[in-house]
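Bug #77: duplicate submission created two jobs. Keeping one. Sequence:
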Amino acid sequence: MTFISYLSAQIEKFAFFLNDLIISLFPFFASYLNDYPETIMIIIGFGGQALFAARFIIQWLSSESVGKSVIPVAFWYFSISGGLVLLTYAIWRKDPVIIAGQSVGVFIYARNLYFINREKKENKVDLPK
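Kept job's structure:
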């Protein structure tokens, strides 16, 4: 079994757990979710896409509020969270194109947050006491 297949199987186990949890909390979903078990993963995929799209709304609103193009820190957090959820969905689908794109993207977003946090720490150290 390849590593991606293994991860996909683990994600699918989690999806079935989530499916059972939703059914126990909302029994009226049982007939639909049991007939279409992939629905949970599709919802997760759309959730990741929503997080990823929200980052652009955050960036746009932040830029509008200051009258110039800015990238707020929240943009990077939404990028990472959306990217990780989409990566999870891509692994479940065993889609190498999306896996490659989201893997690289998540690394870049995390690296940008690293630089932002490092700069904040350096600026705090440089301030006179």
